[in-house]
Amino acid sequence: MEDLAPGYRFYPTEEELVSFYLRNKLQGQRLEIHQIIPVVDIYHIQPWHLPKLSGKLCQGDTEQWFFFVPRQEREARGGRPTRTTSSGYWKATGSPGYVYSSDNKVIGMKKTMVFYIGKAPAGRKTKWKMNEYRAIEQVPDQLTGNIPMLRGEFTLCRVYVVSGSLRAFDRRPLEPAPAAVVAENAQKAEPSSEPTEGQGSPPTITGLLQQQQQQQPPWVSDWDWVWDWDWEEMTSHDGSNQLDATTRIDKHKKQQKFCTTN
């Protein structure tokens, strides 16, 4: 940090993390990025020890730190990765989401985790959190039926401490995400007898799915993440990751049937 003028700091957007730093790492290009984001197996290290292991531009940072994390050997063989340290464990929270480019294309996926002290499932939640990013290798083609692939050799992790002073992370793009647009259009398509958003009732799942089929590829949908996917469930034995579109369609049908019968 001594080479930077006061006020300058490393604060990349999610788009920059995936499209520049992670992709260059996966392609073996621009080796100098290791000075900014080092390779560290963070899942076996106490999170409060990670700041001193961060890159040169983050050594003096008090908010967030970035690391490339190599794929674990057991994960490469088709097993589940371990995220346990000597004092606690990392636990996924919420549902995985998408990372968008500035032109509103999906370029990666993100999973959020929280660190707990103690043994699962009775651990004590801490303020340490992490975003785990993976790059999409292959963009799906509706004509050929290609399935998007997730690169697994390295992930890029952003470790941070939750505090009232932490600035909102720039996720870009600033335009509404596709799912939000779909929800808005689906709401307009609902019969007038249905409650509006102002009355506290969201659009129906059936309406959302119909709109999604008309406006965007079926795999780009926030409803795909109603079920909390694990990266491990999308990992094939050759080390690549696939998003199982057939499984998602089956789950959508079950969800619609449940809503209809209830």
Shape: globular
The main sheet comes to: 7 strands, antiparallel
**CATH architecture identity of the largest domain:** Beta Complex
Structural class: alpha+beta
| SSE succession | HEHEEEEEHHEH
Give the helix level as a range of percent: 10-25%
- Overall tally of structural domains: 2
The end-to-end span amounts to 59 Å
CATH topology of the largest domain: Metal Binding Protein, Guanine Nucleotide Exchange Factor, Chain A
By CATH's scheme, which homologous superfamily of the largest domain applies?
NAC domain
Low-confidence blocks of residues: 173-178, 180-186, 188-206, 208-262
CATH class assignment of the largest domain: Mainly Beta
Q: What is Rg?
A: 20 Å
Summed up, the helix count is 5
Please tell me about this protein's structure:
With 262 residues, the protein is α+β, with helices and mostly antiparallel strands. The longest helix is centred in the C-terminal third of the chain and has 17 residues. It is built from five helices and seven strands. Helix 3 crosses helix 4. The protein folds into two domains: 148 residues, NAC domain (Metal Binding Protein, Guanine Nucleotide Exchange Factor, Chain A); 84 residues, no CATH class.
What are the main properties of this structure?
single chain; 262 residues; alpha+beta; Metal Binding Protein, Guanine Nucleotide Exchange Factor, Chain A; seven-stranded antiparallel beta sheet; 5 helices; 22% helix; globular; disordered C terminus
